[in-house]
Specification:
The chain is of the alpha+beta class. It is about 20% helix and about 25% strand. The protein has one domain (about 5-170).
């Protein structure tokens, strides 16, 4: 397992799951690193593959993974299935690497997931420990374990999306 990116405690209410007529599958699951022109990076994590955890007011309530469907599809399904209304936040841990070259829109895309997710046993064990500590936040774990090469992404809130994307456009010109 190789975690390449992750987001902690993103709010489901900050995603526009139903953007309007004719746009049924065009919702976005935007995350960012940085916030200033010239250095901000934004990716749409709808198509990321990995593990996710849904949280309710008491803590973790559901754990799932994405295989063929992306993270966004699985989360959107949970707004309408037996879990609808039973969660308000989610954390995710992605396996697909992020391509550092932006698309024409300025957003970053994903490369293909590594076929063999356990290329290094020590890295895999360390990433698994980091995933569990970051996801659950056990009170007696004093160490904040880090992923080997993964970056934390901050959720782009619904009302802020255009502002941050505008900063991308300025960075591209």
């Amino acid at each position: 397992m190789r975690v390449t990116s992750y987001g902690l405690f993103w709010r489901g209410s900050e995603v526009d799951w139903k953007p309007g007529n004719g746009n049924r599958n065009s919702f976005r699951l935007l995350g960012r690193i940085g916030s200033n022109r010239g250095s901000i990076r934004i990716a749409d994590f709808r198509h990321q593959q990995g593990i996710y955890i849904l949280f309710d007011q008491y803590g973790p309530s559901y754990v799932g993974l994405t295989r063929n469907q992306g993270l966004g599809k699985r989360l959107k399904d949970h707004t309408q299935d037996h879990l609808a209304g039973k969660w308000d936040r989610f954390s995710w841990f992605g396996f697909r690497p992020i391509d550092p070259t932006p698309t024409e829109t300025g957003l970053l895309n994903f490369g293909q997931a590594v076929e063999e997710l356990t290329e290094n046993t020590n890295t895999t064990i360390g990433d698994l420990e980091a995933l569990l500590i970051r996801a659950i936040g056990p009170k007696n774990n004093k160490a904040q374990m880090a992923f080997d090469g993964a970056k934390e992404w901050t959720q782009v809130e619904y009302d802020s999306a255009d502002r941050y994307i505008g900063r991308l456009a300025c960075a591209q010109n």
